[in-house]
Amino acid sequence: MSLRETNKSMRLRRTGVVPSDARVRHYDELDEETQVTVRELAGRPQTAPEADDLDDGDVVKFTDYYEVRAR
Amino acid sequence: MSDSYVIIGDGIAGASAAETLREEAPDAEITVLTDEGESLYNRILIKEYAKGKLPEAPISIHQESWYDDHDVDLRLNTVVVDIDIENDAVHTHEGETFEYDSLLLAVGGTPQQLPVGNADADGIHHFWTFQDARNIKESVEDAEQAVIVGAGLLGIDFAAICGAQDVEAKYLMRGDCWWRYALSEEGAEIMHDAMRERGVEPVFDSGVDHFEVDDDGHVEAAVDPNGERYECDFAGVAIGLDFNTELVEDTPLKTEDGIVVDEFMRTNVDNVYAAGDITTFNDLILGEQAKNGSWGSAKEQGTIAARNMLEYGSEEFEWVSSYSITHFDFPFLSFGHPTLGDDSVEATTAEGEWRRVALKNGKVVGGVLIGDLSPQSAFKQLMREGRDVSDQKQLLMEPGFAVDDLTAMTEQ
Description:
The complex is a heterodimer.
Chain A: E1 9-14, E2 24-26, H1 32-41, E3 48-49, E4 59-61, E5 65-70
Parallel strand pairs in A: 2-4
Antiparallel strand pairs in A: 1-3, 1-5, 4-5
Chain B: E1 4-8, H1 12-24, E2 29-33, H2 46-50, H3 64-69, E3 72-75, E4 80-84, E5 89-92, E6 97-99, E7 102-105, E8 109-111, E9 124-125, H4 130-141, E10 145-149, H5 155-164, E11 168-172, H6 185-197, E12 200-203, E13 210-213, E14 219-223, E15 229-231, E16 234-237, E17 241-243, E18 259-261, E19 272-274, E20 279-283, E21 288-290, H7 295-310, E22 322-325, E23 332-336, E24 343-350, E25 353-360, E26 363-370, H8 376-385, H9 403-411
Parallel strand pairs in B: 1-2, 1-7, 2-3, 7-19, 9-16, 10-11, 10-16, 11-12, 18-20
Antiparallel strand pairs in B: 4-5, 5-6, 8-17, 13-14, 14-15, 20-21, 22-23, 23-26, 24-25, 25-26
């Protein structure tokens, strides 16, 4: 199970600069379920339940760099 | 007295084994030996560093303090020169001896050098370690022209690095398309176009006959077997790995293009295990021995090996791997064993979207998805289930394919 049982929702925001203190995760490191979420959210103004293996502020490398915003 | 575990290698396989051992055996003595000068880093992100897209810091996964905090004895820059199977001990280049109750070999591979003249010249790079990435970044930043050799998943990283650093490159390929063992020309052409957009020109039916060097021994051109000469300030070579089995050559450990292990990651010696790229493992899904070099597979193998080192037979390695390319504005993903099988089915499903599924005895054993990754989970599920799809294989090419589509067909 990779979706957290919290009320937080997550979105991905394209980012041009990756800070040195960011945790960066490559698509291949993520759980299969989280990969599906990343594919659905990348480049789209949508939200999804927060994934278990991503935290607010993480940066995901997919076809671009995306910052995780979990609220 | 607590059990002692020695792990050779601090890549993701060795490190995940150390983590698992510490979690599940709090009193165990754990030693990690690595010939590298830095602790675990993210090997799948070092290409992003070389592209100039990432700073160094996020690449690191385990700071050296992690090992102290978890009571793991980490020895950097330590080369194991001998494994004494009879006496349960390993010896290092500095004459140290580490005895073990159980040993894990996570020693990976070494990039192959082209067997051609001047292949070791200055300016010719291979890409495996973080230090390689630093050297490549430095070299590419000063380059205007490059040559790339190796039409596979690692070679394309060089193409992306050149593209990102505005270096014009010729990508010399022996066949008529990139990764010809897994893609047809139709699928590969999507990748070729993406390379061209970034200033990297694929050159087919080519390769390298020899390199030319200047008076300082720096590469200045590659000459292909057709006699064509390609000037370069930099060359990237990624033609495959030699697995680091020389360490076990004089031991009873069985090797076969790697160290042979069962589904529990155990070698033919009861207290010696292996994990990661180095293994030739019993692939329960494929039904035969296999190799896999993906990050996820290596991490899982390290975890499984650790659990079986603690209790043999406790957990099998059963895994469908995948590997993605995220250099372009469309995704690419290979899964399972796309170069194997006795049959395949492929289709262009939309503009810029292509897929191919490899089958063996009617069952999915791997594939490639370009542009649309949505069937990834369904295809992996079919692999895990060992479902015979030979009569319905064209359904796999339908946009929006789901496993239930097959069920519906079966029930009709």
